[in-house]
């Protein structure tokens, strides 16, 4: 119950971590199944339809329900602490964002047991995703589930923007903000401007499928390429929503374990902003083969290649930070160090794909699969591992085992390169993406076998990580405030895990790497910027949960509104939109409650603070 | 912040009660951000409409369909309602609660009239022109864009009505003021969107 009603950012972080972890596990299982099917030519382990459902759900789950929530978990756990705040700007909305994400994700995964998962690829290209080619409810689960989950992401993004703009501790100017806070800020801005586009795209597709609208239906005057534009105008920035937080994590971990300040801090900030901006200008590089014409292709080709410049700046700054530092290869830093070359390789194949004529060869082959897994898994997932190992003691008060951590790292990264490195060659040799099997003796056999073995090894790495978590959770919570001993930022100045109010007194920030600065001046703690006083806390509430339940019910109701049921009661309820209306009623009713009964919150008094 | 609370307790509100507390300022800021997202949302809908507006699939075209006087009347109502919401905020800044309530009521009323006209317009198209959601890509885009705006108006009416109730119940405080202020921002926003709809959908449909 405590967990259903909480509005504390630290607990919401843990909720995001759990939910994201479970979805990540589901997506991982799907990946393993795909790889087993592809282990040898003409395999009959899965049929084509199941295979299509698996790749669609794997991609969709991984991106929207697996890694995004883990990113949000880290942001929620760390951002208020790093900027010296007691919570996010809107704790209520924070909880709402989590619950809408979770119920959207549950809705999407219900498709497995309710008549067929989506099967049109994670990009849901029309007309493949229209009722003509995809007659089950699968794609409806996709559109409506993602719509609900996306709402949560958008809410989260706005919340972090407001938090970072208004709640920084005194003295923390924007140019004194830790890099992870910066990337969170920019990521949130991208979310704000990219997600509404996919919201509209999903609405249009829903209307086409459920209300027989004609947006993408050529016979009715519609235009399928329109879907691709809308999808990618969201989809490309989405890639940066994923990778920028990882950049932020790496920029925290490397300086800490090099005992040096981040090289080129202001150029890092500038590069981040530039990447975000360019991210919106390059969407059509996913559409070179749709026939946009040579002029458009050339423009998008060049603008895409431009992104390599700020990205290169970042890579070199990380290398220069390590250069000459007192580098310690703890588990987080191993992941960070592994990130740099792996991500760079993904970047190089990205530039190759950005060349339009070359893309005509690479398009929809395993070369593309290899490229984006190098970026997403070799970049983002390694970054998330670095961040999780790094902040685990802060979140849970327990150090993860370094020994198991190193085992996780080596099995995972070796498995990763085994899986995906060979896929470059499979692609160049002509193996198509998204096909459920291939013929023997085309020289695909051995490399596919290697790839599947690598995927299993990654699975082993994940199991070691889970074992580490399990064993750690049974040990006493005795992590020090600054367990890595070289912490540079504000989160390391308070207990692990932090008390619910985070800071007894808001600290005064006197420079970049505020804590490090004080340590260098010989101080053991931050100078407070205020006297000890009574702290105002928001109350716990069930309303965010209820609102999300309502949206969930409404979504299901709308989805089945045109179905024929064997039971007349069901037909009556669904076909007259009664279920939909009921769901909306719950949601709007909860909103009304929220509006009418203001939350006065509660206070923690100074005596109580001293007592702890 | 504490002074603002004290003033509110004494019955003397600060000049801009919506920005008197950190919560209030956060709310206004976040709402600006939210409107940024809404702008992208409508931008995408407009782009879709522009891409499909000549795809009539042998159904009625914009030129045959639209009846400008009706739309102009609706536009007029909505523009005036934006003005009355400005009056409401001015009354709030002067601390005149009754006047604030009355202007909000007028705003809601004008919004309702607009909505009635829009529903009437749609029903004419559907019944007499056989122009429904499924007729053509143009019709789908039309109903989706204009309908989305209409849904926003409907939500605004509900929202401001709740706020009026709250105002009567709790009075004007540093808690209610930011809500009222933000709802006025929202109302202006949907008004601006309508100006674009009037131009891009209706005027361009008639002449372009
Ligand atoms: C951890 C091990 C992983 C393995 C073994 C794996 C394997 C695969 C395979 C075999 C495919 C199908 C390729 C095809 O036939 O088109 C695929 C597709 C995909 N994967 Fe992964 N993957 C992994 C992790 C991830 C992660 C972490 C993400 C994202 C965060 C991700 C995102 C995608 C996407 C977007 C697709 C494309 C799906 C589509 O074509 O609709 N994968 N993956
Ligand atoms: Cu892209």
TrEMBL record, chain B:
Membrane-spanning parts: 29-50, 70-91, 103-120, 140-164, 185-205
Membrane disposition: Multi-pass membrane protein
Coiled-coil annotated spans: none
GO biological process: aerobic electron transport chain
Subcellular location: Cell membrane
Cellular component, GO annotation: plasma membrane
InterPro entries per UniProt: Cyt_c/ubiquinol_Oxase_su3, Cyt_c_oxidase-like_su3, Cyt_c_oxidase_su3-like_sf, Cyt_c_oxidase_su3_a-hlx, Ubiquinol_oxase_su3_dom
PROSITE patterns for this protein: COX3 (PS50253)
Keyword Membrane appears in the UniProt entry: yes
Domain Heme-copper oxidase subunit III family profile, chain residue ranges per copy: 29-206
Primary location group: membrane
GO terms, molecular function: cytochrome-c oxidase activity
This protein's UniProt keywords: Cell membrane, Membrane, Transmembrane, Transmembrane helix
Protein family (similarity comment): Belongs to the cytochrome c oxidase subunit 3 family.
UniProt-recorded name of the protein: Cytochrome B oxidoreductase
Organism of provenance: Paenibacillus borealis
């Amino acid at each position: 119950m405590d967990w259903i009603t909480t509005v504390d950012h630290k607990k919401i972080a843990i909720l995001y971590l759990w939910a994201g972890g479970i979805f990540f596990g589901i997506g991982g299982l799907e990946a393993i199944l795909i790889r087993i099917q592809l282990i040898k030519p003409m395999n009959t382990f899965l049929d084509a339809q199941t295979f299509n459902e698996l790749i669609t759900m794997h991609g969709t789950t991984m991106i929207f329900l697996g890694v995004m929530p883990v990113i949000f978990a880290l942001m929620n756990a760390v951002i208020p602490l790093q900027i010296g705040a007691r919570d996010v700007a809107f704790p209520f909305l924070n909880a709402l964002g989590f619950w809408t994400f979770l119920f959207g994700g549950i809705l999407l995964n219900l498709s497995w047991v309710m008549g067929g998962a989506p099967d049109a690829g994670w990009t849901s290209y029309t007309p493949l995703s229209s009722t003509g080619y995809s007659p089950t409810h699968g794609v409806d689960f996709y559109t409506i589930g993602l719509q609900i989950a996306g709402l949560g992401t958008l809410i989260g993004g706005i919340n972090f923007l407001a938090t970072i703009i208004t709640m920084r501790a005194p003295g923390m100017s924007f140019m004194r903000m830790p890099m992870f806070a910066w990337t969170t800020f920019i990521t949130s801005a991208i979310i704000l401007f990219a997600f509404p586009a996919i919201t509209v795209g999903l609405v249009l597709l829903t209307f086409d499928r459920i209300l027989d609208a004609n947006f993408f239906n050529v016979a009715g005057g519609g235009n399928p390429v329109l879907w691709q534009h809308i999808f990618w105008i969201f989809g490309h920035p989405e890639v940066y929503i994923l990778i920028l937080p990882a950049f932020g994590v790496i920029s925290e971990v490397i300086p800490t374990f090099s005992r040096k300040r981040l090289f080129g801090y202001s150029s890092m900030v500038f590069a981040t902003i530039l990447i975000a901006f360019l991210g919106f200008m390059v969407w059509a590089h996913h559409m070179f083969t749709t026939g946009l014409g040579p002029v458009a292709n050339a423009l998008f080709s060049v603008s895409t290649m431009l992104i390599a410049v700020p990205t290169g700046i970042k890579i070199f700054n990380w290398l220069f930070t390590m250069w000459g530092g007192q580098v310690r290869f703890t588990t987080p830093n191993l992941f960070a160090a592994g990130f740099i070359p792996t991500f760079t390789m993904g970047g190089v194949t990205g530039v190759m794909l950005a060349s339009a004529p070359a893309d005509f060869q690479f398009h929809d082959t395993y070369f593309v699969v290899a490229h984006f897994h190098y970026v997403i898994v070799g970049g983002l997932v390694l970054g998330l591992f670095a961040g999780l190992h790094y902040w685990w003691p802060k979140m849970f008060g327990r150090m993860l085992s370094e020994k198991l951590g190193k085992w996780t790292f080596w099995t995972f990264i070796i498995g990763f390169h085994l899986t995906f490195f060979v896929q470059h060659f499979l692609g160049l040799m002509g193996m198509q993406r998204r096909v459920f099997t291939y013929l023997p003796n085309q020289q695909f056999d051995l490399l596919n076998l290697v790839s599947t073995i690598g995927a299993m090894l990654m699975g082993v790495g994940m199991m070691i990580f889970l074992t580490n978590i399990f064993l750690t959770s049974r040990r006493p919570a005795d992590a020090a405030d600054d367990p890595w001993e070289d912490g540079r930022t504000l989160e390391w100045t308070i207990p692990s895990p932090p008390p619910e109010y985070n800071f007894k007194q808001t600290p005064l920030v006197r420079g970049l790497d505020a804590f490090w600065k004080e340590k260098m001046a010989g101080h053991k703690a931050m100078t407070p910027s205020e006297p000890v006083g009574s702290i105002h806390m928001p109350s716990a509430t069930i309303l965010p949960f209820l609102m999300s339940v309502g949206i969930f019910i409404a979504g299901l109701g709308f989805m089945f509104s045109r179905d024929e049921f064997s039971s007349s009661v069901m037909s009556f309820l669904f076909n007259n939109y009664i279920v939909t209306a009921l769901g909306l009623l719950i949601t709007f009713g909860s909103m009304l409650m929220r509006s009418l009964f203001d939350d006065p919150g509660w206070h923690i008094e100074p005596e109580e603070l001293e007592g702890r | 912040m504490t002074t603002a609370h004290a003033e509110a307790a004494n019955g003397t509100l600060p000049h801009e009660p919506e920005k008197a507390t950190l919560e209030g300022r956060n709310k206004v800021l976040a709402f600006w951000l939210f409107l940024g997202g809404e702008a992208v949302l409508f931008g995408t809908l407009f782009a879709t409409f522009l891409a499909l507006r000549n795809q009539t699939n042998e159904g009625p075209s914009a030129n045959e369909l639209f009846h400008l006087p009706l739309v102009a009347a609706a536009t007029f109502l909505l523009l005036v309602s934006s003005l009355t919401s400005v009056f409401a905020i001015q009354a709030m800044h002067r601390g005149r609660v009754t006047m604030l309530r009355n202007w909000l009521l007028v705003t809601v009323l004008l919004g309702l009239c607009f909505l009635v006209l829009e529903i009437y317009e749609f029903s004419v198209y559907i019944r007499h022109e056989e122009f429904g959601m499924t007729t053509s890509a143009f019709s789908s885009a039309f109903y989706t864009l204009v309908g989305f705006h209409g849904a926003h108006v409907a939500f605004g009416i509900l929202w401001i009505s709740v706020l009026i109730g709250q105002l009567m119940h709790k009075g004007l405080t540093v808690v209610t003021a930011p809500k009222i202020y933000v709802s006025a921002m929202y109302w202006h926003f949907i008004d601006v969107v309508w100006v674009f709809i009037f131009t891009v959908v209706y005027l361009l449909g008639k002449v372009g």
